[in-house]
Each structure stands twice: as C-alpha cells, then as structure tokens.
Design goal:
138 residues; five-stranded antiparallel sheet; alpha+beta; Thiol Ester Dehydrase, Chain A; 20% helix
Length: 138
C-alpha cells in the first residue's frame, strides 16, 4: 500500500490510542519489531470494533471478521516509548468497512495499515454505518 499524504498526518485521524512499547516488542537493537507492529494496529482496531458491537443488540449485530490487512512500514520506533495508534475509516460498504490506521511516534508516521472487516452474515446495521461514516478519513 502507498499511503496518501493525509494518511501520514496524525491530525487526519479522528481516533487516537496511546500504546506503550514493551520490551518484548523490540529486537536486540531496541527497534520495534515488524511483527509487533501488527499488535499495535490490532489493539486500536479491536477497541473500535468493540464499540461498534455495542451499538446494536447482540442478536441483531453482525459477526465482524478481518478479511485482509495491508501494511506499509515507513520508519522505526525504539524502546522505551509510546506509539500513537491513529484510526479512521477509509470506506464503508454494505457488508464491509476498510479501517485505516497510522502509527505515530512524536508526530512522525512510522507505518500505515488498511484492514478490511466484513460482516460474516447480513449487512452492517444502520447504527454501525452511521458511526463509521462519522469517522471517514480525508
């Protein structure tokens, strides 16, 4: 993936979650391990998905599953430190949503990811679609 210029700016994203870098997340040079970056995206993505599930009664809510994740590694982070995981919505479909995220260290973008999340059965509920529409990225 090649992020747009807006995706490289933390201010473009409506949601932000600070996540500390753990010692277990780094290599012997104290660089954030590429595999560990996926956990940072996942932490903030799960928080959004949990919020969406809470908008509709469980019996009416769709089962949301990750269909694809595309990641761009743009820089490094070091331990100790904190990652600002920024999250917004790239696209909302009838049965799917593309979640766009950026990882920022002191305002510098070190990575971007797009995750396609699909409703396993049925459509996205109107309350979920309304919330997603409010988080659209520029």
């Amino acid at each position: 993936m090649k992020p747009t210029p807006a995706r490289l700016e933390a201010a473009s994203y409506p949601l932000h979650k600070p996540v500390p870098i753990r010692f277990a997340d780094v290599d012997m040079f104290r660089h954030l391990n590429n595999v560990a970056t996926g956990q940072f995206y996942e932490e903030a993505r799960y928080e959004l998905l949990a919020e969406l599930r809470g908008l509709v009664p469980r019996a009416e809510g769709p089962t949301l599953v990750i269909a694809n994740v595309d990641t761009a590694f743009l820089g490094q982070a070091r331990y100790p430190g904190t990652i600002d995981v920024a999250t917004g919505i790239v696209r909302v479909g009838e049965r799917s949503v593309t979640i766009g995220q950026g990882l920022f260290v002191e305002g510098r973008c070190i990575g971007c990811a797009d995750s396609i999340v699909v409703a396993a059965e049925g459509m996205l509920a109107p309350a979920i679609r309304d919330r997603l529409d409010s988080l659209i990225l520029p």
